[in-house]
From TrEMBL:
Belongs to the G-protein coupled receptor 1 family. One of its GO terms (cellular component) is plasma membrane. It comes from Seriola lalandi dorsalis. This is Olfactory receptor. It is a multi-pass membrane protein.
């Protein structure tokens, strides 16, 4: 017999992802804190560099800033709660807190895909339609694309979380470090057909965006073979974009597949690593990849740091 449905607003979920981590919590806390602070540092450094340098006020760099802002949101949806739980004796989260975490996590996921799609469109216009680029990618168009990125992503998330919030639940144990939509839906004791259908709609949406990116890259590769300048532009701006897409997609696929088909008897540390990879790796790697590969950003960051080191030296 199933337990009676729980009155959702009064539910306190128990997060079981840290059950096997009692002995090394201080080490995990230190590693998580350093990782979070470094993620914030590299993303903020890139954002500030682009904002302060007028020569970097180009569409591709503004889209990159948006990607970094989204990365900070994604990391901040995971690390603060993890750091708190590593120091706490009980690992619980309220129903409203769980839905809020789901909302931020999935907004990050959808915004990442949409941002990468917009960046692919920008690179397509810059390399394949260079004569039309300035006329098409105006400040107004850039603002519209950024608004579309966040508006579309938030709409996808609001609908999904709204469907989940209507479900009566018959459990309160979540076998993860953080709340995810799938883990909460699995606790439902009612029909979840609507949630499943909407999940397929979201999957189609993300696959469609991935398809658009791949189509644009087919054109980009063809165009980059025509001249050396196009090849250099492709390597500097498109290659990091492709690496970013692959890292994020692979991380997300790992989490999705393991949530549904992974063995619950596997090592807890392995489960945690696979579950959190898409929230840890892309926000950390994205600004590093772009910062190293884009000469304008790299030279400006090095110039800023060298200038600060010179000013800090004592004058004789």
């Amino acid at each position: 017999l199933q337990p009676p449905p729980l009155y959702c607003p009064h539910i306190v979920f128990v997060l079981q992802g840290l059950n096997d981590s009692d002995t090394n919590r201080q080490i995990y806390f230190a590693l998580a804190l350093v990782s979070y602070l470094f993620t914030i540092f590299v993303n903020v450094t890139l954002i500030v560099t682009v904002c302060l340098e007028k020569t970097l006020h180009e569409p591709i760099y503004l889209f990159l800033c948006n990607l970094c802002v989204n990365g900070i949101c994604g990391a901040s949806s995971f690390y603060p709660k993890l750091l708190h739980d590593l120091l706490a004796d009980s690992h619980v989260i309220t129903y409203s807190g769980c839905l809020t975490q789901i909302f931020v996590v999935y907004s990050y996921v959808f915004c990442e895909f949409t941002s990468l799609t917009v960046m692919a469109y920008d690179r397509y216009m810059a390399i394949c339609r260079p004569l039309q680029y300035r006329a098409v990618m105006t400040a107004q168009r850039v603002a519209q694309l950024l608004l579309l990125t966040w508006g579309f992503s938030l709409l996808e998330t609001v609908v999904g979380v709204s469907f989940t919030a209507t479900l009566p639940l018959c459990g309160h144990h979540i076998r993860k470090l953080f709340c995810t939509n799938w883990e909460v839906v699995k606790l439902s004791c009612s029909d979840t057909t609507v949630n499943n259908i909407y999940g397929f709609v979201l999957m189609f949406s993300q696959l469609s965006q991935t398809g658009l990116i791949l189509v644009s890259y087919a054109h980009l590769v063809r165009a980059s073979l025509r001249s050396r300048s196009d090849r250099r532009k492709f390597v500097q701006t498109c290659l990091p974009h492709l690496v970013t897409l692959l890292v994020f997609t692979i991380s997300l696929v790992f989490d999705s597949m393991y949530s549904r088909y992974g063995s619950s008897s596997a090592l807890q540390a392995l489960q945690n690593m696979l579950a959190a990879e898409f929230l840890v790796v892309p926000p950390l790697i994205n600004p590093i990849i772009y910062g190293i590969n884009l000469q304008q950003i790299r030279s400006r960051i090095l110039q800023n740091f060298s200038h600060k080191s010179e000013t800090l030296k004592p004058h004789s």
